[in-house]
Structures are given as structure tokens and as C-alpha cells.
Design brief:
Blueprint: H1 9-12, E1 26-35, H2 39-51, E2 57-60, E3 76-78, H3 84-89, H4 94-118, E4 129-133, H5 136-152, E5 160-162, H6 164-170, E6 178-182, E7 185-187, H7 190-203, E8 207-209, E9 214-218, E10 221-224, E11 227-236, E12 253-262, H8 267-273, E13 280-282, E14 290-293, E15 299-306, H9 322-334, E16 343-353, E17 360-364, E18 369-373, H10 379-394, H11 419-439, H12 446-454
Parallel strand pairs: 1-2, 1-11, 2-8, 4-13, 11-18
Antiparallel strand pairs: 3-7, 4-6, 5-6, 9-10, 10-11, 12-15, 12-16, 14-15, 17-18
Helix pairs in contact: 2-7, 2-10, 4-10, 11-12
The structure holds flavin-adenine dinucleotide.
Length: about 450
């Protein structure tokens, strides 16, 4: 029997028993069937039922609701997403990029509104985010980045540079020279959000079948080992797992991010560290790092990024895997005060990397198969906007959301193996080397940077 609770710190701290809901058996009918009960699937169901109470919405989930990335992430509910800045950089797409950016800012508040309305206590705290600079080059780049954002029309209420002393008022990190700050991020307990959403969707009439991995998707139908659901629309909300579904192997590459959580820190340590507003924080590395102060006074921190040949997905990792020591070292290099603090939890999980590095949403009116995701590790907030937009589209609502640039863009195909593995592994190696050169105060190799750009 699979011990779901052991698969992330967040799942282990839920005060519910995680008992499986019944599996799909036999033939069922629905108006919309959603494959995958993570944030994307559940937000889609939530807004569909909001638009049309009584709509027959069913979800098929391979494990339990929230067992995917939604129940194991870093808990940054972000008003940002990959793919927005290229839109802003091009004058022809800037307006759409700005509309998407504003909609993403708003979705952080929307998550809070829904949680309040529906009684989901996900420890939501909108303390913003700090992206720390630790060498001069990073400082210059971040100051230039804020200037660029201002040029595109953002204000200091959206993005600002904090000087070293301003950073120290919020967070004392080793060698911190300042930070890029944005208020549009909240720290949450991710599993409480996804499990709470599942309960709300059920209370509104949505049906969730667990332990029901979908093996085949056809127009108007999904099939599991023991049953089928026929529906007017089929929605694929499987993000990093999408490559495991026949016919979708090259749509998404699963990348694994790894996390650790400390024991609860003493009041003295918190006094020294800061994060009084539970600001989320990150280092400046190319291989993303991300941390938050949890509501129970720990630090949850993640990093790395592993790809397994053939788009393999892993959900369970040995706590003695050396990768966790690398994540801990990364945390200690930012906060050396934590050197003697115990790491009590170690886990990881897959996130979806689309070929063009941009989240997307497609809803094909002919096949009536829709698909959404590809957030590159930034889907906690964005999935709310995605699910809401998908619900608008499927129920024929002409909102501003359905005109956002990521709608209808579709998902391009990844290269077949071994090219996919070679490309992703080479990019990761280049990022790792550049990070190490920069951390050592050296000048990053231009050759390596250009290789990375091409990859
Ligand atoms: C370690 C880690 C840290 C992260 N940190 C952050 C962060 O701090 N902030 C942020 O914004 N994003 C973060 N992310 C990314 C974020 O968690 C995801 O973008 C988001 O959860 C995606 O939600 P989803 O519903 O699309 O996918 P998922 O939550 O992965 O849901 C997909 C669901 O589909 C199910 N499934 C798969 N195959 C099938 C099948 N064949 N049949 C039925 N069901 C199936 C899975 O079991 C899963 O429950 C992180 C991800 C990871 C792994």
C-alpha cells in the first residue's frame, strides 16, 4: 500500500487521513472529464461548477488528489510565469504581455479570495519575494532588470530594487548585496490548498475518482484499467506526467526539483534571519532555488532539476540520495546560521517543461480535447488563471482571459530521445558551471553562455 503521506513534508503535515476515494469502475458519463486532480484540474473543475452548477464534472486521478507537483512544491504562489517577459520585450506583443502579467498578479489575490470564501486554510501570507544578489554582476543585472520592468510600464509597487540595508531589514543572507523585490507572491502550504480544493469541488457536485490512471484518451472518452468515462469535453491536466499518456509523449519533459525542510527554528534564529512577513526568497542561480518560512517556523527550500531519460517520472527518493546534501549546501551557503539545524524532511517531484518554455492552453473544438500546463515550476498561482480560463473557454464565456496570449498557442513537440536527454542534460550542465563560476566571483564563460542560449 503506497504511503502518500511520506512523499512530501506538506502531505506529511496534513490533518486528514488521505484515504483513497473510490476508483472508476464500469462506464460513466459526464459533461467534462478532467484527467489529473492537481491545481490545474481542480481549478478548472471549480470554475466550471461556478459558471454552471449542476454541470457533470468528473476527475480521474492516478493517485490521490494533490499527489503530483501540487502537493509537493515550494509553496510560492506567484503572480508571474515563464514566457511573459519575451512578450513584454517585443513591442508588438507588449500589450498582451502586460494583460497576462496583470492577470497573473490578480490570480494571487484570487487564490486568497477563494480560500477565504471556501474555508481553505492554506497558511496564505502575501509577503512578496526577494531575489537576492550576491556578486556585483548579479546586482547590476537586477538593477537593470528593474529599470527594464519600469520601462515596460510596471511601478515600484510591482518590482523594486532593495539596497543591501533594505534587504537586511527583511532577510539576512550571507553576502547579500541587495535584492529584487516584488510583492506579488504569497507563501502557502501547497498540499492544504490542493486538498482543500478537492473537497470544495466535491461539495459542489464534482466527482473525483482516485487510483484511476487514465491509459487512453480519445475524443469524447477516457479509459482506465477498470472503466471508461464518456464526456463532451476531455481535459488533460497532467502537467509533468503528460509524456506517459499514449499520443502525448513529446508534449512535455518532466524535470524533477528537490526539496528539504528544516526542523522548526528557534525564536532567536528567526530574529537573526528575518522573513518576518514570510517573504519567499531565492538565490540568483540559473538553476532555480526557492525558499519559504513555513507557518510552523521551518524553512522549506528547493533546488536542482533532474531529467530522467525517456521522460521518466519519479515521486519517491531515498533520503540518503546525495542530491539532498547538495540542496542543503545551497541553503547553508545563503544562511550559514542553519549549519547545525536538522533537516527533517527530504522529497522531490516532477514539474513540466514545454519545448518552447512557455505555459499554454489549447482547447480543440473538433476533437473536444483540451490541455493546459507547462509552468516550468511556476504553476501554483498560474494554474488558477489557467483553470479559470479553461473553464471560461469550455463554457463559452467571452472574457478577457480567453484572449490572453497563452490561449490557443498549443504545445510544440520535444525532440525524440536520445536528443531530448542530450539537450536537457547539456543545458543543465552549462547552467551548473555558470552558477559555480559566478558564485566563485569569476567571469562566466561567454562560450558557455552562448551554448546555453542555443540549447
Ligand atoms: C519540488 C517542486 C517545487 C515546486 N515549487 C513551486 C513553487 O514554489 N511555486 C510554483 O509556482 N510552482 C512550483 N512548482 C510547480 C508547481 O507545483 C506545478 O506547476 C503545479 O503544481 C502544476 O499543477 P498541475 O495540476 O498542472 O500538475 P500536478 O499537480 O502535477 O497534477 C497532475 C496530476 O495528474 C495525475 N496524473 C498523472 N498521470 C495521470 C493519468 N494517466 N491518469 C490520471 N491522473 C494522472 C498526477 O497523479 C497528478 O496528481 C514546483 C514543483 C515541484 C515538483
Amino acid at each position: 500500500m503506497r504511503d502518500f503521506r511520506s512523499e512530501s513534508f506538506w502531505l506529511s503535515t496534513l490533518d486528514e487521513d488521505l484515504a483513497l476515494r473510490p476508483a472508476l469502475e464500469g462506464l460513466e458519463e459526464a459533461d467534462v472529464v478532467i484527467v489529473g486532480a492537481g491545481y490545474t484540474g481542480l481549478w478548472t473543475a471549480y470554475y466550471l461548477l461556478e459558471h454552471e452548477p449542476g454541470l457533470r464534472v468528473a476527475l480521474c486521478e492516478a493517485g490521490i488528489a494533490g499527489i503530483g507537483a501540487s502537493g509537493r512544491n515550494g509553496g510560492w504562489c506567484m503572480g508571474m510565469a515563464e514566457g511573459v517577459e519575451p512578450l513584454l520585450a517585443d513591442p508588438e506583443t507588449r500589450e498582451g504581455g502586460m494583460a497576462l502579467s496583470r492577470a497573473l498578479f490578480d490570480c494571487v489575490d484570487e487564490v486568497e479570495r477563494v480560500c477565504e470564501r471556501e474555508g481553505i486554510d492554506c497558511h496564505f501570507k502575501k509577503g512578496g519575494t526577494l531575489q537576492v544578489a550576491r556578486v556585483e554582476k548579479q546586482k547590476e543585472e537586477q538593477i537593470a532588470h528593474v529599470a527594464q520592468m519600469t520601462d515596460w510600464g510596471f511601478s515600484p509597487d510591482d518590482y523594486q530594487w532593495l539596497s543591501e540595508s533594505e534587504l537586511n531589514e527583511r532577510l539576512r543572507v550571507s553576502g547579500g548585496l541587495g535584492a529584487l523585490y516584488s510583492p506579488h507572491v504569497a507563501a502557502i502550504h501547497p498540499a492544504r490548498l490542493v486538498r482543500g480544493l478537492a473537497r470544495v469541488v466535491e461539495s459542489r457536485g464534482g466527482r473525483i475518482f482516485e487510483n484511476s490512471a487514465v491509459r487512453q484518451i480519445r475524443p469524447g472518452e477516457v479509459e482506465t484499467d477498470q472503466g471508461r468515462i464518456q464526456a463532451d469535453w476531455v481535459v488533460l491536466a497532467t502537467e509533468a506526467y503528460t509524456a506517459q499518456i499514449p499520443g502525448y509523449k513529446r508534449r512535455m519533459a518532466p524535470i524533477h526539483s528537490m526539496m528539504v525542510a528544516t526542523e522548526p527554528l528557534s525564536a532567536d534564529l528567526w530574529e537573526e534571519i528575518g522573513l518576518g512577513e514570510r517573504e519567499t526568497f531565492a538565490g540568483p542561480e540559473l538553476i532555480a532555488t526557492y525558499g519559504q518560512r513555513t507557518a510552523d517556523g521551518r524553512i522549506a527550500y528547493g533546488s536542482r532539476g533532474l531529467y530522467y531519460y525517456g521522460s521518466g517520472v519519479r515521486e519517491r527518493f531515498s533520503p540518503t540520495d546525495p542530491i539532498f546534501e547538495q540542496v542543503r549546501e545551497s541553503l547553508i551557503s545563503l544562511l550559514p546560521l542553519l549549519r547545525d539545524v536538522e533537516i527533517t524532511h527530504r522529497w522531490g517531484g516532477p514539474l513540466g517543461l514545454p519545448r518552447d518554455r512557455t505555459p499554454a492552453l489549447s482547447a480543440d473544438r473538433e476533437t473536444r480535447i483540451a490541455m493546459a500546463g507547462g509552468y516550468l515550476g511556476e504553476g501554483v498561482g498560474a494554474s488558477n488563471l489557467m483553470g479559470r480560463t479553461l473553464a471560461d473557454l469550455l463554457s463559452g464565456q467571452e472574457t478577457d482571459r480567453v484572449r490572453l496570449p497563452w490561449v490557443g498557442k498549443g504545445f510544440s513537440q520535444w525532440e525524440p530521445e536520445p536528443l531530448r536527454w542530450m539537450g536537457i542534460t547539456a543545458a543543465r550542465t552549462a547552467m551548473d558551471r555558470l552558477d559555480k563560476q559566478e558564485a566563485a566571483g569569476g567571469v562566466p564563460s561567454r562560450w558557455m553562455e552562448s551554448v546555453l542560449d542555443r540549447l
